[in-house]
Amino acid sequence: MSKKIVHISDQARQAKYRQIINSILESVQRGSLKRGDKLPSINDIAHEFSLSRDTVMLAFSELKARGVVAAMPGIGYYIESTNVNVDQKIFLLFDEFNAFKETLYNSFIHALPDTAQVDLYFHHFNHRVFQSLIRDHASRYTSFVILPGNLTSIGHILKELPADKVYLIDQLTPELGTSYPAVYQDFEDDIYQCLLSGLSLLLKYNHFVLAYPGGKEPIGFVDGFVRFCNDHQLSREVISSFDNRDVKPGEVYILPNDLDLVQVIKNAHRNRLRIGEDFGIISINDVPLKEVIAGGVTTISTDFKKMGESIAKMVTEFGRGRVRNPSSMIVRSTL
C-alpha cells in the first residue's frame, strides 16, 4: 500500500523526507487520496523503503503543520485537507483586536504570498488562554507569530513550540531575552525620541501630564516620559485616569488610552478651552479617525503597516534577526 502512495528514488536529488511529502501531495492533487483517507503508518513506510522512522516522521510533521495531514489515536495518520496549495500555515496570536491591530493584520496578510494561510487567535491578556492556545496548536502550523502583550512568565510555554518557527511582534518582555526573531517597539526610547522631535512645540506648555492606566499599557511609556521631562527640566505628572479632573490651560496631555482622549476633548468643550492653543493633546497610536477628530489629533505612533510587512518578510524568508520598528510623532492641530 505504501508504494502506491509514496514514491522514493535513490537517484533523485531531493531528500527522502521531501519525496514522501511530494508523493502524498501529488496523490491528493490527482484525487487518489481524499479527505478522510487513511495513510500508511510511519513504520510501514520506513520498513518498505528502508528509512529511519525519524525521516518519515519529519515528512508527516511538515504535512501536519501545513494542515494536509492529521493524526488520531487508534486510527493513525489521515488526510485532513485536500488544499495542497498552502505551503505555509501560520498561527497568528494577538492580545486584542483594535483599529491599529487591524492595520497590522491587513499589512501582514497582504505581504504574504498566496500560498500562505493565516489563522488568527486572541489571548485577551489572559495567561491561561495564552497557554491553552499554544498547547492546542503546537503541531498544526509551519510558523507561529505571537504578540505577547504584557504577559509575563511565558518563556516555558513558548518552549513547547519549535524554536525555529516562532516569531514575536510588538511588545517584548525581558524574560524572553533574544531567544526569538522579532519585530518590536522600544516603548521607552520611542516616546523619548518622539517627544524630543517636537520639543519646540512642547515648550509653549508649562506642565506635562501622562495618563497611564497601567494594566495592558507598556511601562516603557512612563520610563521614557519621565526621562524626557527630567532631561529637559519640565514639570511633569503621571496620573492613572481623568476621573474627577479638569483640563487646565498650559498643560499638555499624553494619552495612551483612547477613552481618556474622548474624556479630555469633552472636558475641553465643556470648559470652553481651545485644543492646541490653551492646552495640548498627544495621543498614542495613530488611526485614520485621529486625522479628523478635533481638527486632527497629534499622535506618537509606530508604523503598524511597516510592522506587518517586516514580520511577513521575516516569516517567508525564515529570518532570524530582530528589527526595531520605526515610530514618529505626527503633528496635527492639537499641539
TrEMBL record:
User: What organism is recorded for this protein?
Assistant: Breznakibacter xylanolyticus
Q: Which CDD domains match?
A: WHTH_GntR (cd07377)
Q: Tell me which InterPro entries the record gives.
A: LacI/GalR-like_sensor, Peripla_BP_I, Tscrpt_reg_HTH_GntR, WH-like_DNA-bd_sf, WH_DNA-bd_sf
Which ranges of the sequence are coiled-coil?
A: none
Domain HTH gntR-type, first and last residues per copy = 14-82
Q: Which UniProt keywords apply?
A: DNA-binding, Transcription, Transcription regulation
**A single MF term (Gene Ontology):** DNA binding
Protein's UniProt name: Substrate-binding family protein
Q: Which superkingdom does the taxonomy of this entry point to?
A: Bacteria
